[in-house]
Amino acid sequence: MRVALLGLRLMCLAWLWPVSHNSSHLPNKRRHKEQYGENTKQKHGGRVDLKMKKLDSTKSLLIKSEQLLRIEDHDFAMRPGFGSTAIPVGIDVQVESIDSISEVNMDFTMTLYLRHYWQDDRLAFPSSNNKSRTFDARLVKKIWVPDVFFVHSKRSFIHDTTMENIMLRVFPDGNILYSVRITVTALCSMDFSSFPLDTQNCSLELESCVTTPLFSLKDAYNENDLMLYWKNGNDSLRTDEIVLSQFFIEDFQPSFGLAFYSSTGSYNRLYINFILRRHIFFFMLQTYFPTMLMVMLSWVSFWIDRRAVPARVSLGTGTKCQCITTVLTMSTIITGVSASMPQVSYVKAVDIYLWASFLFVFLSVIEYAAVNYFTTVEEMKKLKRAKIPNSYDATQAMAFDGCFHDNDIDLTSFPEVSSTPNTERNTQSRNSTVSGPTEGTRLRRKDPLKLNLSFIMSNSYMIDSYSRVIFPMAYLLFNIIYWSMYT
């Protein structure tokens, strides 16, 4: 019996021993697989693990910074020292460039670095070496910053290449420097009454507002809550070397003022003032010099024979003065200048010059018309005084312009007029007018204006002679007055 029990125990032990042996080897296999898998990941996915480690380290650094600055312990929707005196915020601006100035849209585009300085005791942190900490835009979204906006701004944006151009520097005592790189397009009310000899005064205006959910724009921080000021006075505005194609920058000057709104109160406003003086040489080459040449070209007609009509009014086929061509050219210049300028309701300096020059060109054409008319009337009168025979060829006495010339008519071949009773009466009447007035008659003085007009008509060549002097002298006097007024 004992032998049977012993054999049964041995059989049970023999059956249980392989199972326990296999189970003891399973953890070793799992460990082997895990080690093998880690080795393969290190071989094929090492870069991914490195990136994940970097992201984890950045997040942990940000979490440590928030813990250091105790971000979660304070309500940064409220300004520092809420309920007490106004918080001073210093402003410092460095103008990087003035990208464009548009006369048509009356605006300018400027790129600048806007720096804010203030103190927030809630962000003070202990430091053994008294060194500041610098953060990017992610921390800016979690703390209070002064929300400064540009008055009369049309467009503006913060540069974001390759990252957002925002820098936040926190000092151990709670002083903060917040810097932003911005490009802004703002309104500039320009006065073109002296264009292109003008000087424009433009300004970029900064004011405070609040865009947090607790406030609306009407509830912006007024002077009792936030005080904007230039941190270093006049030295708070710095500029790089700026060169513009059409303007000289005469001066950059910061200033300060208050903006009053009837519904919400007074607000601090900072001004970046700059004076622009326009380059005149471009407009001298494109507008003034061509206009002067067109006016002087119209004077050439004064030295051309008054009977040479085609040469005086030629549209391009003649070799001499082209009066109508100068009128058309002046119209083209005026149209081109007006197209590049805003449609203002007042007269500009360039308009005065162009229209005065156009008037001189127009008067030169009128002068030719008067000379041609008086010459034609004078010659027709001379021809009517003589009786032209039927055999006379009138075309011989006509110039190329179609006018009769008395020098071309041979009056010696005309028959003498026989005396008739009618001619005798005419002779007696002429003699009676020559003889002295009889008693009881009244003398009638001739109108001096008619006498002068008849004298000019009979001596039309004198109009050209006077015009050769009057026109240049009048235009010279106009230029002296014009340039002395606008320069």
UniProtKB/TrEMBL annotation:
<feature type="region of interest" description="Disordered">
    <location>
        <begin position="23"/>
        <end position="47"/>
    </location>
</feature>
<feature type="transmembrane region" description="Helical">
    <location>
        <begin position="280"/>
        <end position="302"/>
    </location>
</feature>
<feature type="domain" description="Neurotransmitter-gated ion-channel transmembrane">
    <location>
        <begin position="287"/>
        <end position="483"/>
    </location>
</feature>
<dbReference type="InterPro" id="IPR006028">
    <property type="entry name" value="GABAA/Glycine_rcpt"/>
</dbReference>
<comment type="similarity">
    <text>Belongs to the ligand-gated ion channel (TC 1.A.9) family.</text>
</comment>
<keyword id="KW-0868">Chloride</keyword>
<dbReference type="InterPro" id="IPR006202">
    <property type="entry name" value="Neur_chan_lig-bd"/>
</dbReference>
<dbReference type="GO" id="GO:0045211">
    <property type="term" value="C:postsynaptic membrane"/>
</dbReference>
<keyword id="KW-0407">Ion channel</keyword>
<keyword id="KW-0406">Ion transport</keyword>
<dbReference type="InterPro" id="IPR036734">
    <property type="entry name" value="Neur_chan_lig-bd_sf"/>
</dbReference>
<feature type="signal peptide">
    <location>
        <begin position="1"/>
        <end position="22"/>
    </location>
</feature>
<keyword id="KW-1133">Transmembrane helix</keyword>
<dbReference type="Pfam" id="PF02932">
    <property type="entry name" value="Neur_chan_memb"/>
</dbReference>
<dbReference type="Pfam" id="PF02931">
    <property type="entry name" value="Neur_chan_LBD"/>
</dbReference>
<feature type="transmembrane region" description="Helical">
    <location>
        <begin position="353"/>
        <end position="375"/>
    </location>
</feature>
<keyword id="KW-0813">Transport</keyword>
<feature type="compositionally biased region" description="Polar residues">
    <location>
        <begin position="415"/>
        <end position="438"/>
    </location>
</feature>
<protein>
    <recommendedName>
        <fullName>GABA(C) receptor</fullName>
    </recommendedName>
</protein>
<dbReference type="InterPro" id="IPR006201">
    <property type="entry name" value="Neur_channel"/>
</dbReference>
<dbReference type="InterPro" id="IPR036719">
    <property type="entry name" value="Neuro-gated_channel_TM_sf"/>
</dbReference>
<dbReference type="GO" id="GO:0004888">
    <property type="term" value="F:transmembrane signaling receptor activity"/>
</dbReference>
<dbReference type="GO" id="GO:0005230">
    <property type="term" value="F:extracellular ligand-gated monoatomic ion channel activity"/>
</dbReference>
<keyword id="KW-0770">Synapse</keyword>
<keyword id="KW-0325">Glycoprotein</keyword>
<feature type="region of interest" description="Disordered">
    <location>
        <begin position="414"/>
        <end position="443"/>
    </location>
</feature>
<keyword id="KW-0812">Transmembrane</keyword>
<keyword id="KW-0628">Postsynaptic cell membrane</keyword>
<feature type="transmembrane region" description="Helical">
    <location>
        <begin position="323"/>
        <end position="341"/>
    </location>
</feature>
<feature type="domain" description="Neurotransmitter-gated ion-channel ligand-binding">
    <location>
        <begin position="71"/>
        <end position="279"/>
    </location>
</feature>
<keyword id="KW-0732">Signal</keyword>
<keyword id="KW-0869">Chloride channel</keyword>
<dbReference type="GO" id="GO:0005254">
    <property type="term" value="F:chloride channel activity"/>
</dbReference>
<keyword id="KW-1015">Disulfide bond</keyword>
<keyword id="KW-0472">Membrane</keyword>
<dbReference type="InterPro" id="IPR018000">
    <property type="entry name" value="Neurotransmitter_ion_chnl_CS"/>
</dbReference>
<dbReference type="GO" id="GO:0034707">
    <property type="term" value="C:chloride channel complex"/>
</dbReference>
<keyword id="KW-1003">Cell membrane</keyword>
<feature type="transmembrane region" description="Helical">
    <location>
        <begin position="466"/>
        <end position="485"/>
    </location>
</feature>
<dbReference type="InterPro" id="IPR006029">
    <property type="entry name" value="Neurotrans-gated_channel_TM"/>
</dbReference>
<dbReference type="InterPro" id="IPR038050">
    <property type="entry name" value="Neuro_actylchol_rec"/>
</dbReference>
